[in-house]
């Protein structure tokens, strides 16, 4: 579950911009979340319990401009659509912040939302943050109040959990539920990077597996270079299989030059590379970290890291 920093500070200002996150995840997300074919894809239908999917689809229209996939992404990240067995989902509170219910509301925040908005019939009497119907509709109203009503998607998500990584994770998860972009549809440099990111976001939550090449190859998960190899293979670009050989294959991003979404970021030393991730913008990467962990979005730099540089597989190649 998330860190539950949903304090009762309705209307808190966001500190990141929509272009930064949208640019990080790719233009496909703009279509998915701001118009176009915003219907549940096969992954959404398989992963989301039907009663929750119905609630997300019903609640989103109460806030013009809100995609059902944003609600679904929050529900997935917070409690796996109510399936989590951790404390605070069906009763009690998840941590010392006091979050509870399938959408992880603070009681004060939930009370404030339901005082301002009348929830439709179908929930508990009085409304309860533990009731899925009430929780999902209240989440839609909260997002609307905190940014969707003024066209600021980032502010809305940031108000739910005050962390940049959370915004990126929600957007990435939403894309996996609603994106209709097919593999390798366009292999121009920009679209190849976007497709690699689209593919990698679709693997969020899968387990790290040493030597893993992903479900398409019959494995439960990926290791770090297996993920980047598969991501670029989906865009029609073949990479060497290991992190070290991917680093050597280049083309190298010159030191001091800004990274762009789709770059591969490496760790170790030039002669001994041990890890690789896929940069998605806004200082974030998608990577398969290590044993016992899942594929996730995380900062690509941190105190004490051994960052070795980046390559740009999607760069135009000389003829």
TrEMBL record:
It comes from the Bacteria. Residues 190-319 form the NlpC/P60 domain. Coiled coil: none annotated. The keyword Membrane applies. Keywords: Hydrolase, Membrane, Protease, Thiol protease, Transmembrane, Transmembrane helix. It holds the Pfam family NLPC_P60. One of its GO terms (molecular function) is hydrolase activity. The chain crosses the membrane at residues 7-35. Belongs to the peptidase C40 family. This is Cell wall-associated hydrolase, NlpC family.
């Amino acid at each position: 579950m998330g860190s539950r920093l949903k304090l009762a500070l309705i209307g808190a200002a966001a500190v990141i911009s929509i272009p930064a996150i949208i640019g990080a995840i790719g233009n496909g997300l703009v279509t998915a979340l701001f118009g176009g074919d915003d219907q549940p894809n096969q992954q959404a239908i398989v992963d989301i319990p039907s009663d929750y999917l119905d609630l997300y689809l019903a609640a989103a229209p109460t806030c013009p401009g809100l995609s059902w996939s944003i609600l679904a992404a929050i529900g997935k990240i917070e409690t796996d659509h109510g399936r989590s067995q951790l404390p605070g989902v069906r009763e009690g509170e998840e941590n010392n912040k006091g979050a509870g219910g399938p959408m992880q509301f603070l009681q004060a925040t939930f009370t404030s939302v339901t005082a301002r908005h009348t929830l439709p019939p179908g929930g508990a009497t009085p409304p309860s943050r533990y009731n899925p119907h009430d929780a999902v509709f209240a989440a839609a109203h909260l997002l609307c109040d905190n940014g969707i009503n003024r066209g600021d998607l980032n502010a809305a998500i940031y108000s739910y959990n005050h962390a940049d990584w959370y915004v990126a994770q929600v957007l990435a998860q939403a894309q996996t539920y609603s994106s209709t972009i097919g593999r390798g549809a366009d292999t121009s440099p920009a679209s190849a990077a976007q497709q690699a990111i689209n593919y990698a976001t679709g693997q969020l939550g899968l387990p790290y597996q040493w030597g893993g090449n992903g479900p398409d190859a019959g494995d439960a998960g990926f290791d770090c270079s297996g993920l980047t190899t598969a991501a670029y293979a989906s865009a029609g670009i073949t990479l060497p299989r290991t992190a070290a050989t991917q680093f050597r294959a280049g083309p190298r991003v010159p030191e001091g030059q800004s990274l762009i979404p789709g770059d591969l970021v490496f760790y170790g030393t030039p002669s001994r590379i041990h890890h690789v991730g896929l940069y998605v913008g806004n200082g974030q990467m998608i990577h398969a970290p290590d044993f016992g962990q899942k594929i996730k979005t995380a900062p690509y730099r941190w105190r004490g890291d051994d960052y070795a540089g980046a390559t740009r597989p999607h760069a135009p190649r000389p003829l």
